[in-house]
Design goal:
Elements: H1 10-14, E1 20-24, E2 33-42, E3 54-61, E4 69-74, E5 82-90, E6 94-101
Antiparallel strand pairs: 1-2, 1-4, 2-3, 3-6, 4-5, 5-6
């Protein structure tokens, strides 16, 4: 795992769009699933002196749903930060989740 001091900014996530994350409730769980980062959107409503707000969209298999909540997202470049996600849509094959950073 990479140092936990990686600052989670839009730039960090934009550089890893299309990459997979292992997602679960803890580092050791075999119940972790793969989600793919498919979108990183910057918000135009930032405030001077604060981090830039943004949102992320992840996709995963529809047959392996996650509930709204905070999960550990493991990725080799950013380590294992906890990220709060909300299911936002699904079709027969894919379930989409959103994370908002503000």
């Amino acid at each position: 795992m990479i140092a936990e001091s990686v600052e989670l900014t839009p730039n960090v996530f934009e550089s890893i769009i299309g990459e997979r994350f292992l997602v679960g409730n803890d580092h050791e769980s075999e119940d972790r699933i793969e989600l793919t980062l498919v979108e990183a959107v910057r918000s135009p409503r930032g405030h001077p002196g604060r981090l830039e707000p943004f949102s992320l969209i992840f996709e995963g298999a529809a047959e392996m749903p996650l509930n709204q909540g905070t999960y550990l997202f493991t990725h080799p470049e950013i380590g294992t930060p906890p990220i709060f996600i909300v299911p936002v849509s699904q079709d027969q094959f894919v379930r989409r989740y959103q994370a908002i950073f503000n």
